[in-house]
Amino acid sequence: MRIISILSVVLMSALFSASAMAEPVQPEGPSAIMQLLFFGGFILIFYFLMWRPQSKRAKEHRNLVSALSKGDEVITNGGIAGKITKVSEDFIALEIAEGVELKIQKVAIASALPKGTLKSI
Fold it and tell me: Is 3.40.50.150 the CATH number for 69-121?
């Protein structure tokens, strides 16, 4: 009888120590599908807030630069306003005052002005 009680105490202590040594159960993180949806949401936000508006502005500027012709009134990125006198492949000649011309790259044109704007300034 004494041997059975000793064995039962040993077995009980072994069970308690094994359960105490076991790692605690940790909660699961988000599932793989949720992580993919979260990542996809970031990509959509990036596309609609940054990439798409920038590509639209770049397309508008390409169209502006390709449509430049002699006689157009423009403003450069540096703020110089003038009238186009010559157009070549990469450069334009911009008349900023009577008899004063500057050669400027086409990509430096910020915007086109309506005809007659320079006379009113």
Answer: no
